[in-house]
Amino acid sequence: MSRLRTVAGAPALALIVALVTAGCGVRPTGVVDGGEPAHGLTKDLRIYYVHGSGLQGVTRPDISLQRLDGVLKLLADMPSWAEERGLVNLVQLGSYWTSGTGHRITLHSPGASFDSPRDRLPNGQLVCTLARAQSFLHRDEAIRPDDVRVSLDDGERTYGPYQCSQFLT
């Protein structure tokens, strides 16, 4: 009787093994286009403030920005709720303007301080905010914030170019 069960069970076992080793029937394909890259990171404008010893980006949805210089006015006009969250603005600029296009921009601010160790966080605020604003203004051209290089010019010397990622560590 046990020999009969073994003989009868052998074809069933062979069928199970064949099904398991045959795979699921999906045939290999070539390279498949994944479509357009994600745009979620550059959808809204983001302004950077200092939180503790680092930078924190604050999304500012529904902001209309026409020129790169305008984002520095938004940085200076910190919302009241930001202070409640422990955010501060360390940027102090006199006169300023921006120049450049695409992936390279320069902030000109005669007499500003960009070279001392205490300028690291305010410089980071400027670089990250300007890079995000450039990406926001040129979102149709798919300029990513990480691709933007920002130089800081105090009228005597130009510092950089910097990337935002240099200030986020």
TrEMBL record:
Residues 1-22 form the signal peptide. It comes from the Bacteria. Keywords: Signal. This is GerMN domain-containing protein. It comes from Streptomyces yatensis. The lineage of its organism: Bacteria, Bacillati, Actinomycetota, Actinomycetes, Kitasatosporales.
